[in-house]
Amino acid sequence: MIDPRDIAACVLAAITNSKHQLKAYDLTGPEALSLAQAAEKLSAAVGKNIKFVDLPDDAYRSALLDAGLIPQFVDACIQFWDIVKAGLAAGISPAVEQIVGKKPRSLDDWARDNAASLR
After folding, report:
1. What sign for the dihedral angle of Cα 78, 81, 82, 88?
2. Is residue 65 within 8 Å of residue 90, measured between CB atoms?
3. What's the pLDDT at 13?
4. Burial class of residue 100 in the structure, from the number of CB atoms within 10 Å of its CB (0-12 exposed, 13-18 middle, 19+ buried)
5. Distance between CA atoms of 43 and 33, rounded to whole angstroms?
6. Tell me: the pLDDT tens digits for 59-110?
7. Residue 113: helix, strand or coil by DSSP?
8. Those residues with Cβ within 8 angstroms of residue 35's Cβ, 6 or more apart along the chain or in another chain
């Protein structure tokens, strides 16, 4: 998970500094979290219990299709979440610090800064 402000800082650096031209970066936050751990951190920030509920793929697929998403996109969403749930997207990258010169913000930072909006 990555703070959107870190993404914006990286984009700004990438479009204003030619050393980033034709480069690709793997942007991440500073820690790999499960969705249950993320829910715990959000709970702490807002003072309310937020629980991650892992839907079976069929229920998730039905909900997305019922929301009007096209089947190809729904299939991609299911594949993405299967990858996340398997822990295959849990890597941490130093790219944010390399690009903007400061460590990325944590989910705790983001949640604290946005707690009022989340409530």
Report:
1. positive
2. no
3. 95
4. middle
5. 14
6. 999 999 999 999 999 999 999 988 988 888 888 999 999 999 999 999 999 9
7. helix
8. 52, 54, 84, 85
Identity of residue 59: A
Q: To 10 degrees, what angle do helices 57-66 and 71-85 make?
A: 140
Note the helical H segments in the chain.
4-16, 35-46, 57-66, 71-85, 95-100, 107-118
- Which single residue is written with the structure tokens 């997305």? 64
pLDDT tops 90 at residue 50: yes
Q: At residue 41, what is the residue type?
A: K
Residues 6+ apart with CB under 8 A from 43: 49, 50
Average pLDDT of the residues in 14-36? 93
33 φ, ψ (degrees, to nearest 5): -125, 145
The residue ranges of every structural domain in the chain are 1-32+91-119
Give residue 37's Cα distance to chain centre.
13
Let me know how long the chain is: 119
Distances 66 to 42, 57, 78 between C-alpha atoms, Å: 28, 14, 15
